[in-house]
Amino acid sequence: MTDENDAAGALEASGLGKTYRRGWALRDVAFHLPAGRICALVGPNGSGKSTLLSLAAGLLTPTTGTLRVFGQEPSAPAARERVAFVAQDKPLYPRFSVADTLRLGRELNPRWDQKAAERVVEEAEVPLSARVGSLSGGQRTCVALALALGKRADLLLLDEPMSDQDPLRRHRMMGVLMAEAAERGTGVVISTHVLAELDGVCDYLLLMGGGRIRLAGEADDIQAAHRVITGPSETGGGTPAALARHTVVETRTTGRQLTALIRPEGTPSEDGWIVTEPSLEEVLLGYLRAPDAPPLLADGTRTPDTEVGA
Ligand SMILES: Nc1ncnc2c1ncn2[C@@H]1O[C@H](COP(=O)(O)OP(=O)(O)OP(=O)(O)O)[C@@H](O)[C@H]1O
């Protein structure tokens, strides 16, 4: 990390919105991502993750509001130099060999690190002599990741980079990525639908829904702000009075037992109820199942309808 603007954070969004022809893809997005964090970007299909990443990479311009990368406009050369983006479509030259592709990376990037790039293709067992057009989708993704790591960026923006990797390679690629991030303090924003992949890897979280931010902040803070509480369900359904003082994210009823994901107000001590700490995956699943649950911004940003937690 070199820039004096790191204090501004890796990403800072305020009132950020983006429309396409069919309407708003992002709306009133505000969050703060400190430099050097591993941030999971999670949300259902169409919730705006790729749009947010493309804005951060300077490939799209906002319709409203601002997004800053290390304090700069994403399209500014100083910001572009510090950011590497692996998009879902991974545009690579099919006629180039893997070695030619890395050579091009070296010519285009002043901070190029050949060893870091080669480590990725070696780990993925992709031959340097292979033509890109002859590679499988998953192998092409590894070449795109090699270009991103070779760039020696301070922020990696990765749009579902593991979606076409087999489980073993997924594990190995995540290992290479995390080792790189730990070694150099590189920040990572990684969008994924595989929630199990996040536990113990990500220290920051952005959950999107309908083009808005629903959860933002330190993964530990977000996890600690929730409890799973299990007890007797009310006859006739509805949320039991015992839960009224808490923020209820989601309830599920099995027979005569009700399980709720809550943001507790004080220590939950209701008689006959069992209280446990949810895993991060359980918290995320709860919000994904309950699209209308109140948002929680635990990253210091505030909007009128948002509670600041943790
Ligand atoms: N180029 C485009 N032109 C028009 N609409 C678009 C375009 N790209 C995205 N959208 C729309 O914007 C919304 C957000 O899409 P986006 O791709 O950002 O979501 P996502 O969360 O990345 O989805 P997924 O998980 O399926 O990749 C969707 O309603 C989508 O249809």
TrEMBL record:
Gene3D superfamilies: P-loop containing nucleotide triphosphate hydrolases. It holds the Pfam family ABC_tran. GO terms for molecular function: ATP binding. The keyword Electron transport does not apply. PROSITE patterns: ABC_TRANSPORTER_1, ABC_TRANSPORTER_2. The keyword Transmembrane does not apply. Residues 11-235 form the ABC transporter domain. Keywords: ATP-binding, Nucleotide-binding, Transport. InterPro entries: AAA+_ATPase, ABC_transporter-like_ATP-bd, ABC_transporter-like_CS, ABC_Transporter_VariousFunc, P-loop_NTPase. It comes from the Bacteria. PANTHER family: ABC TRANSPORTER ATP-BINDING PROTEIN ALBC-RELATED. This is ABC transporter ATP-binding protein.
